[in-house]
Amino acid sequence: MTIGLMLTLAALAVIDSTSFGTLVIPVYLLLSRDRSRTSGLLVYLATIAVFYFLVGVALMLGLTAALESFGEALHSRAAYWVQLVLGVGLFALSFRFDPKRRAKRGRPERRFEPVAGGPRAMVLLALGAGAIEVATMVPYLAAVGILTTSGLPATRWLPLLAGYVLVMILPPLALMGLRAVAGARLEPRLERLRAWLTRHSASMVSWALAIIGFLLARDAAFQLFFTPN
After folding, report:
1. Is 217:84 a contact under the CB 8 Å cutoff?
2. pTM of the full predicted structure?
3. pLDDT at 70 over 70
4. Nearest Cα to 35, choosing from 175, 198, 130?
């Protein structure tokens, strides 16, 4: 284990700490109106940290190789048709959340303002966020790849992986501590940030659904109609 390896992993972990699931959602929960239920945020952070740790362990132990055995089924025409339908469905669903389209129809704007709920709700929220974005977290996948090729035994890479996911959740933990120390002096700024997130959350969800749906549908359509069998 070298200092260069640890610094590389630390840098990748810092980048991962700014993702939607590890920063945006926790900050939103932190800024929710129910400020007394910080335990819900702690449950969320613990769940998403454990989720990413287990994903990393699975990848290190060869889950990728196991999934490759199903490659033929995943690349069949039936699978691509399912992907095409899913992509078109997500793209169509995005218009239901578009604030401008809803305003033209005289419908109220959808707003997303998650609040800290009970332990079960926070666990489900964390698992959902992790499952949605894990495949797009390039730094995390790169870190797992680096650990895989480093040749370290499990007694070495397990603590490194645990430290990595801990760094990922440090920013919201630091914000919780800052709010506890600053108290009322920080409240006006937190309220403005919470209001901004509330106003723009529907647009962000709409764009995210549209982009994901388009990419899924485009890839499936290319495989179905433009790739020779």
Report:
1. yes
2. 0.66
3. no
4. 175
Half-sphere exposure (CA, 13 Å, Cβ side) for 94? Answer: 17
Four-residue CA torsion sign, 131, 137, 138, 140 = negative
- Rounded Cα distance, 206 and 41, in Å: 25
Q: Is 215's pLDDT higher than 90? A: no
Cα dist. 196→69, 113, 199, 210, 217 in Å? Answer: 46, 11, 5, 22, 32
How far apart, in whole angstroms, are the C-alpha atoms of residue 41 and residue 81?
39
- pLDDT average, residue stretch 15-40: 75
**Sole residue written with tokens 């901004």:** 196
Average pLDDT, stretch 67-76?
A: 67
Specify whether the CB–CB gap between 32 and 112 falls below 8 A: no
